[in-house]
TrEMBL record:
Pfam families: MarR_2 (PF12802)
Domain of life: Bacteria
Protein name: HTH marR-type domain-containing protein
Every HTH marR-type domain range: 14-147
Length: 164
């Protein structure tokens, strides 16, 4: 895939976009840490958050598919799943069609945690961004950025033989 060289002005704009995404992410992450203390639940590591997000959106996923989607090396992925299991957020089931394959599912506790995060994060952003069209536009752009960054990363790991 060929990309035109990016000029200095565009480089600065893209850097600021990435920097702002990280800054907003830190603020949101900090609110999650506060909520963990408030609801007496254990905090999640960033790796656990990535794995939990995928499992929640894809219940019954195979461990292999989840590891690939989260772009984690096997040992990091396994550690994250074990941590989530220990916290009561994920459970494993043997695949009915292939006993060698394990399926991952969120637990009721994970659903409750997600409900709490939904309330906390919605409350955090309430009044900051309230125009429905603006919310949809930002969400659409961020979803596209995530999708294309994931595809780019997977393509790079496929050509270099690396993952992680």
């Amino acid at each position: 895939m060929y990309h035109c060289p990016v000029d200095d002005e565009q480089t600065s704009r893209l850097f600021e976009l990435a920097d702002l995404i990280l800054a907003v992410g830190r603020q949101i992450h900090a609110s999650k840490e506060f909520a963990s203390r408030e609801f007496a639940s254990e905090p999640w590591t960033p790796l656990e958050s990535a794995v939990m997000r995928f499992i929640d959106r894809n219940p019954g996923t195979s461990a292999r598919a989840a590891a690939e989607a989260t772009q984690l090396i096997s040992s990091n992925f396994s550690r994250a799943v074990r941590g989530l299991e220990k916290k009561g957020l994920v459970h494993r089931e043997t695949d009915q069609d292939d006993a060698r394959r394990i399926r991952l599912y969120p637990t009721a506790r994970a659903h409750e945690n997600l409900r709490q995060l939904r309330e906390i994060w919605s409350g955090l952003l309430d009044g900051i961004v309230s125009d429905t069209d603006e919310i949809e536009a930002v969400t659409s752009v961020l979803r596209r950025i995530e999708t294309q960054l994931t595809a780019k990363s997977l393509a790079t790991s496929d050509t270099t033989g690396k993952s992680g």
